[in-house]
UniProtKB/TrEMBL annotation:
<feature type="domain" description="NAD(P)-binding">
    <location>
        <begin position="7"/>
        <end position="193"/>
    </location>
</feature>
<dbReference type="InterPro" id="IPR016040">
    <property type="entry name" value="NAD(P)-bd_dom"/>
</dbReference>
<dbReference type="GO" id="GO:0016646">
    <property type="term" value="F:oxidoreductase activity, acting on the CH-NH group of donors, NAD or NADP as acceptor"/>
</dbReference>
<dbReference type="Pfam" id="PF13460">
    <property type="entry name" value="NAD_binding_10"/>
</dbReference>
<dbReference type="InterPro" id="IPR051606">
    <property type="entry name" value="Polyketide_Oxido-like"/>
</dbReference>
<protein>
    <submittedName>
        <fullName>Rrf2-linked NADH-flavin reductase</fullName>
    </submittedName>
</protein>
<dbReference type="InterPro" id="IPR036291">
    <property type="entry name" value="NAD(P)-bd_dom_sf"/>
</dbReference>
């Protein structure tokens, strides 16, 4: 499978890149600074800052899927929205390769009708990126492309590749102690699983231990 990966130099993106390569996929890693992309077999690094529709369309033309692991600067989380919108437009222009977005946990439900973002549980520093991802999900839902929004657990961090996790739809997954957590490594397994055997077309799903 040929996959175009945006955000390949980021924390989760670099792990997703390795998982794709380890499972035999060909990857085009698009980044603002392609020289920072990990040097791995079957990876071509290209420059794209997601500001020119024609450039992005040409990069994803002929791909089987696009993965967006984009992360905005902490001081301006809404900077994620415009590049994501351009990526959706480019996918439309390119004839519709599938898009999987590395999402956020804020829009997951923690009680009937109450999202994590609305619950008051999130520490203040996490509220801006949570709000941005709520907007991003709503925007993608309105698009015509074949999209999948993959929400991680509440704590999304480096860890082990265990291959043991639970998947869900719209409710936050937590363990018996109430902790909601997933490693980048196990998240990457589930994301590539979804690429190889699609189950969530025009839908969101989530993961946790």
């Amino acid at each position: 499978m040929k996959v175009v990966l945006y955000g390949a130099t980021g924390k989760s993106g670099a792990v997703i890149l390795k998982e794709l390569v380890d499972r035999g996929h060909t990857v085009v890693a698009a980044a603002r600074k392609p020289e920072n992309v990990d040097k791995l077999p079957n990876v071509t690094a290209v420059q794209d800052d997601l500001t020119d529709l024609a450039t992005t369309t040409s990069i994803i033309q002929g791909a089987d899927a696009v993965v967006s692991a984009l992360g905005p600067p902490p001081e301006n989380t809404d900077a994620l929205l415009a590049p994501s919108a351009l990526l959706v437009s480019a996918i439309e222009q390119a004839g519709g390769p599938r898009l999987i977005v590395v999402g956020g946990a804020g829009s997951l439900f923690v009680a009937p009708g109450v999202t994590l973002h609305e619950s008051g549980y999130l520490p203040a520093p996490y509220l801006p990126i949570s709000a941005t991802h709520v907007q991003l999900l709503e925007s993608i839902k309105k698009s015509s492309i074949d999209w999948t929004y993959f929400s991680p657990a509440g704590f999304f961090e480096p860890g082990e590749r265990t291959g043991k996790f639970r998947l869900g739809k719209d409710d936050l997954i937590a363990d018996a102690t109430g902790t909601s957590r997933i490693s980048f490594e196990d998240y990457a397994i589930a994301l590539v699983d979804e690429l190889e055997k699609p189950r969530h077309h025009k839908a969101r799903f989530t993961i946790g231990y």
